[in-house]
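Prompt: May I have another protein with tokenized structure?
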Amino acid sequence: MEAIATLFIHLPSSTKLNMFSLSDMPSVSTMLSAYASLAASTMLIRSMANEFIPHQLQDYIFSGLRYLFSPRLSQLTLIFEEFSGITRNQVYEAAELYLSTKITPSIERLKVCKAPREKNLTITIEKGEEVVDAFEGVELKWKFVCSDNERTGSTERYFELRFNKKYREKVLDFYLPFVLSKSKALKEGKKVVKLHTLGFFYDDMGGGGGGGVWGSINLDHPATFNTLAMDPELKKALIDDLDRFVKRRDFYKKVGKAWKRGYLLYGPPGTGKSSLIAAMANYLNFDIYDLELSQLRHDSELRRLLVATANRSILVIEDIDCSVQLRDRQLEVGCDVSSEQLTLSGILNFIDGLWSSCGDERIIVFTTNHKDRLDPALLRPGRMDMHIHMSYCTPKGFKLLASNYHGIHDHPLHGEIEELIEKTEVTPAELAEELMKSDQADTAMAGVINFLKRKKMENDMVKDEQGKEADCRDQKRQKIGKGDGRNRNERTRRSTRLRRNRWR
């Protein structure tokens, strides 16, 4: 530096002035002229390129130039959208639950909710907020993003995950499976059984119901197997069957069957079919999907609803015999079946077709008051594996009701009540209603006896009326039969006379 400074000092003064002379710089007019020429050349080249070079090749060239001149980024971003096709993205759900445990004081905005049936507050991050996580020395940054889709008019939600590119394999192979397993444990630890149904577009937390077309509320049904007034042997057989089902994941895979089970509950109204479904859900901790077939127009909607249900769930179709008019499969063959129609074949494929294998550990329950009205194709094994008859109340069932409602296991009136129950068709719901009419056990039991006596008289009167109607029908058939016989004899005699006259 000193040498350069010395050389500069010893230069002649004229030389120093010439080095920084303004006369050597181009004039403003020259610069404007050069810029105009360059702009004209650029426009000419651009027009020629648009004229002679295909747009696909232009895009390829420009993308290559952008890649060459863009700065090299060391960060990789993964996107987890809320929905993957027509189903909910499991990674999105896992991230939403997992990140709720990673909230730090640095986060400025949180979403806090509490539904009427929820016990605790639910805290999640608000859109635009960022959560920093660490895994085996790797820093990972999560961000929750919401954007409005102008084309569909809906809101798209997704998570962004940013980290250094060199940890790509570790994140994909170890971190994300860790998030999935952690969220599964959290979900099982605080899971509340939910009832999903069509037509609800907001769930208890004010969200979209968690299933697209399904909406949900918490199921607070108190029914358990201990409180059900059903045959003890049948109850034990059902519990054993459920326990066997949930433990046989590997077995179903080995034999090549979808991991699902079908139950048909049939019997008169008021015998506890709906309560049994709630007891099954509480016992297994499975969600319930209540499917109303009358709200569906064609078979494709069944498939869309099926793939939107979660694993470890019970799909219920109540009153299958009268919920919708289904075309018989034999009538469908050889005729034009409209796509805007729900068919029996669609129901059968829904139960055990290819689409039924889209999920694991699922239970399908049909209920009906009239089993004899169902198409035999619905009842075969593989569709409805276990048929459960919910009959009228039995003496053992009444003892359980008396124990549940009044805490009594033996009472002087038990013998008379049991005799009346054996002779009377009465549902558990009717007896439960009588037991609720008084807080005093003696008064309630006496009321049950009076009710059973009235019920028996009503049943006897109905049977007498039915017997009289049957006798009238039989008499009419006999009269019609005699009339037909007399008419046949008269026609025979007339025909004989005609033949005789013809040959005379």
